[in-house]
Specification:
Blueprint lengths: L5 H52 L4 H24 L1 H31 L4 H21 L16
Helix pairs in contact: 1-2, 1-3, 3-4
C-alpha cells in the first residue's frame, strides 16, 4: 500500500480542481473568442453581399452579382458553423463550470488552512472533505467536456 495523509489527499484534490478550473476558464475564453469571430465574419460577409447586390441591382455588372452570391454563400456557411457548434452556449457552460470549481477550490483551500491551523479535528476535516467530494462530483457531472474525462476523487474514510 501507500501512505496518503488527509492533508495529502486534500492537496491532491485541490490541485486537480485548480487544473480543471483553469481548463474550463481557458475553454470558455476560447469558445467566446470563436463565437465573436464567427459573428463578426458573418456580419462582414452579409454587409459585403448587400453592397455587391446593390451594385449589381443598379446595373454594374455580373461580376458584382457573382461576388454577392459568393459572399452570401460564405455567410451561410459561417452561420451554419456557428449554429452547429454553438460556441456562445458552450462558452457560457464552461464559464459556469469554472465558477463552480472556483468556489470549491476556495472551500478546499479554507479546509486545508483550517486543518493546518488546528482549527478542525481530523474527524471534522474528513466529514467536510466527504461533503466537498459529493459537491465536486455533482459539478463534474454537470460540466461540459473539457477534453479530458474528469475523475473525481473516490476515496472515502470509513
Amino acid at each position: 500500500m501507500f501512505n496518503l495523509t488527509l492533508r495529502d489527499h486534500l492537496q491532491l484534490t485541490f490541485t486537480d480542481i485548480l487544473k480543471r478550473h483553469n481548463a474550463h476558464a481557458a475553454k470558455a475564453q476560447s469558445r467566446a473568442r470563436w463565437s465573436r469571430r464567427l459573428r463578426g465574419s458573418e456580419a462582414v460577409l452579409v454587409g459585403g453581399a448587400t453592397i455587391a447586390s446593390v451594385g449589381a441591382a443598379f446595373g454594374h455588372g455580373q461580376v458584382l452579382a457573382a461576388v454577392a452570391a459568393t459572399m452570401a454563400g460564405a455567410a451561410l456557411i459561417v452561420l451554419l458553423v456557428n449554429l452547429t457548434f454553438d460556441f456562445d452556449a458552450s462558452a457560457r457552460a464552461h464559464a459556469a463550470s469554472g465558477a463552480h470549481l472556483w468556489e470549491l477550490r476556495e472551500r478546499y483551500r479554507s479546509l486545508l488552512s483550517d486543518l493546518h491551523d488546528g482549527a478542525l479535528s481530523v474527524v471534522e476535516a474528513r466529514l467536510r472533505r466527504d461533503r466537498l467530494i459529493d459537491e465536486l462530483r455533482a459539478v463534474y457531472d454537470a460540466a461540459p467536456a473539457e477534453g479530458v474525462a474528469p475523475q473525481p476523487p473516490a476515496y472515502r474514510s470509513a
